[in-house]
Amino acid sequence: MTTSRRYSKKFSNMPREGGYGIRPYRIMLTNNQTKCGDIMITYDELIKLAALAKLSMDGEDMDALARDISNILEFADSIAQAAVDLPEGDTDEADWVFRDDNLQPSLPANDILSNAGEQQDGYFVARKRGGLS
Amino acid sequence: MNTISAIKRLLAAKETTCRELTEKYIKAAKEVNPALNAYISFTEEQAVKTAASVDKKLQQGAALAPLEGIPFCLKDNISTKGLRTTCASHMLENYVPVYDAAVVESLKAQNAIIVGKGNMDEFAMGSTCETSFFGGAKNPHNTAYVAGGSSGGVASAVAGNSAVYGIGSDTGGSIRMPASFCGLVGLKPTYGAVSRRGLIAYGSSLDQIGPITTCVEDAAIVFDAICGKDTADMTSRGSEPVSDKLTGRIKGMRIGIAQEFFEGLPAPIQKPLDDAVTVYRKLGAEIVSLEFPLLKYVLPTYYIIACAEASSNLGRYDGLRYGHRTEEFSDLNDFVCRTRSEGFGKEVRRRILLGTYVLSAGYYDAYYNKAQLLRKSIRNEFTKMFAACDVLLTPTVPATALKFGADMTPVEMYQTDICTCSVNIAGLPAVSVPCGFGEKGLPIGMQLIGGKFREADILNAALAFERETAQAFLKTADMGVRL
User: Fold this and answer.
1) How much helix, strand and coil, in percent to the nearest 5, is found in chain A?
2) pLDDT digits (tens, 9 = 90+) for A14-72
3) Residue A4 confidence (pLDDT) above 70
4) Are B179 and B211 in contact, with CB atoms under 8 Å apart?
């Protein structure tokens, strides 16, 4: 089954097409993929992405999530057209300030462990199983 | 108006004790909170204890530090030793830090009085404060509207007169937007001016702590109290105090206007900004026309970098050392995944996924690397603009406060940051000052952007406007403490 929907902007105070260079967007939904302009996120890709991000997809509204992610990627994709004209040798300013590598006092172990769900003999405890097999 | 100087005068003249004042603010905060949802928690015990020591100093006739005895609201992503710090997330609902953030150390050293921890968007990800696990903060000028995000609770507390000032954080506009929506002054300092130690990280190359106040003078006082170099934050450089440089004189100052910030701006927002330009001309400023063609790439650049950094920073929440942990799981990997999905809200999960996507092999160059190149180009454009002007004038937000519960897509929500996030990309200071009221009587903000570590320039421009307009646009709501 293929579903097709059109989403329109609802933010009445914000500039419409042409304002701030944001393009209007249209999303086509099918039962296993979301298409948004040139960007398409499949369910399989979404699940792979979630595994990389250490997130569970249980209980997620996959349609809504795929639509949102595709929509945002379409929006982010506009930078592909940007010509970057940097002067030769242009580098980031030195925002980093390094300190001497000297031993400094650290927080007591008991303090560090105070927020742990489970601790034993000065260690954090990670269980192999819990309720589900 | 309950300004810092006004309260200091009351304390010095012994018209009130610090304890009476503190109790008044705590009572007001608790009374207005059911309507505003500005606070996540109250810190009454510590506040009363601090007030007692301030009263002791007053009895001895000792001079008080600039913020000594002044009640304030602290955003709940800033660590407070022994006091719950939730980041407005289920993930950290019961987290109690074991150390104070650098800014908290500075404020405690002055005997400043924390009334409570301010509501916010979860992990500071949002523009309306509605992504908070505890429900969104309301706008005290009209509770049908949002207070703005992400430091919405802090702005709501100050505008609702349950705190004299507030401390927020700003990654893409999170101090300036709520200040604009609530008719307050919000200062985002230069990146590195204020230590980030103890600020729960979102986008580390963009985050900065700053004040939300009822007037420009107060913003300078609070900035002076919290700025400074910190060896435990390797991006910290510190900054010179600005209060003694505040003159309000701007004759000969070059104020830049880049038209791109004004394209498509609704007329009710444009009008007060035009009026502000007229005020600046009258005060002897030179108005300079500028171009900022890269503005159209600012939002995608910002969201790619912010989400990439968020996906990395939030990787630490695994349920083992602190934070929420799931009860039912099949193995350790399942434990971590379920813990994170249960602990994080929808918007946080979405940004983590996006950050993971733009950092993944195959997409890294197209998104993250390209965004970093654009970041350099945007910085270079600002450098060019600041060769031609001293201060840039823009809208803070191209809208007044949004209706609470408005049905918006993520992209529509992100667009509200269009005028603010270029400042974070370039690491510049910017202040939002009230400059008018919209059709529904809701405040409108004007943003003044300065060169790096030029806080004095933008605050002087803001003060000049505030004085010339006789503070006509500074307004707190008719609730809370009225001194």
Assistant:
1) 30, 15, 55
2) 333 333 333 332 223 333 434 444 567 888 999 999 999 999 988 888 888 999 999 99
3) no
4) no
Question: What is the sign of the dihedral through the CA atoms of A108, A112, A116 and A119?
Answer: negative
Cα–Cα distance measured from residue B252 to residue B274, given in angstroms and rounded to the nearest whole number? 19
Is B366's CB within 8 Å of A117's CB?
Answer: no
Tell me: the pLDDT tens digits for B311-322? 999 999 999 999
d(CA B259, CA B448): 15
- Is the minimum CB–CB distance between B196 and chain A shorter than 8 Å? no
Q: Which residues contact B60 (CB under 8 A, 6 or more apart)?
A: none
Least CA distance to A9: which residue of chain B? B412
* pLDDT tens digit sequence for B202-259: 999 999 999 999 999 999 999 999 999 998 898 999 999 999 999 999 999 999 999 9
Q: So what's the pLDDT on residue B49?
A: 97
Query: Taking the model in full, what pTM does it have?
Result: 0.93
Q: Check CB contact under 8 Å for B98 and A114.
A: yes
Dist. CA B468–CA B151, nearest whole Å: 29
In chain B, positions 272-311, which contact chain A (CB-CB < 8 Å)?
Answer: 294-297, 299-301, 303-304, 311
pLDDT band at B421 (very low <50, low <70, confident <90, very high): very high
**Residue B31 burial (CB count, 10 A):** 14
Question: What is d(CA B326, CA B468) in angstroms, rounded to the nearest whole number?
Answer: 57
Count other C-beta atoms under 10 Å from residue B70's C-beta: 32
Which residue is listed with tokens 């398409």? A40
Pairing between β-strand B208-213 and β-strand B39-42 as defined by DSSP bridges: unpaired
Checking ipTM against 0.85, whether it exceeds it is: yes
Residue that the structure tokens 């200071």 belong to: B429
Residue B79 confidence (pLDDT): 98
Rounded Cα distance, A99 and B4, in Å: 36
Question: Side chain identity at B454, as an amino acid letter?
Answer: R
Query: Does the CA dihedral B34-B188-B149-B99 come out positive or negative?
Result: negative
**Sequence-ordered alpha helix ranges (H) in B236-393:** 267-282, 295-313, 332-343, 346-359, 370-388
